[in-house]
Specification:
two-stranded antiparallel sheet, single chain, two-stranded antiparallel ribbon
Length: 208
């Protein structure tokens, strides 16, 4: 299977990259200064379809695009940086369960915005018309801070958590571009400055 990479167009600030096959994007994680290429082995994943890395729109069986790769990149970055996985997703029988997956996301991110719920094919299976959780699985007491405590490497954990929250947005429209993630403060501390650093380079309404 050939490797594919993200191509960032600085003019229109869009990302042309794979949403299937293999996702590879260069990143530098804090602590060791070693550039890491985040690739998923063929025998473990098919693109971002690996269960733990799927964005909520895919779990809820709705349309997705290149912005799903932003979500997957953040989940993989967490798994490289932390000794504890971001998503567990296993039910009481030990099987990976999409209902548990969504419940964990609710615990981490809070409830999704109404416009997101309304456009998801399976939204009504998890929330009622008022946005209340319908109990498909219990919402755990899970937070970025509790998962990071003693598990995340690097000096500026809070800056890393800000980066994670920026990438892991329920609504794909609210996620930054790949270039926006690279220009975030957490990344810029470990990489050479990007031309135009400090400017708003993400989609309208998303600050980087």
């Amino acid at each position: 299977m050939p490797n594919e990479t993200f191509n960032v167009d600085s003019d229109d600030r869009r990302v042309a990259g794979p949403s299937h096959d293999e996702i590879i994007t260069p990143m530098i994680l804090p602590g060791d200064g070693v550039p890491l290429r985040l690739g998923f082995p063929d025998d473990d994943m098919s693109g971002i379809e690996e269960k733990h890395c799927r964005p909520p729109e895919q779990v809820l069986k709705s349309k997705s695009d290149h912005r799903a790769d932003i979500w997957a990149t953040a989940v993989v970055a967490w798994n490289y940086t932390s000794s504890q996985g971001l998503i567990d997703g296993r039910n009481s029988d030990g099987a990976f369960d999409d209902r548990v997956h969504i419940a964990e996301l609710v615990s981490l991110l809070g409830p999704p915005p109404p416009e997101f719920r309304e456009k998801m094919r399976l939204g009504s299976m998890f929330w009622d018309e008022d946005g209340n959780w319908t109990g498909q699985a219990p919402v755990p007491g899970r937070s970025f801070e509790s998962l990071a405590a003693g598990n995340v490497d690097g000096e500026d954990v809070e800056c890393f958590l800000q980066w994670m929250r920026k990438a892991l947005q329920w609504d794909p429209d609210h996620r930054p571009t790949a270039l926006g993630l690279l220009r975030h403060e957490w990344m810029s501390r470990e990489t050479r400055p990007v031309e135009g650093e400090g400017k708003d380079v993400s989609d309208e309404g998303i600050q980087v």
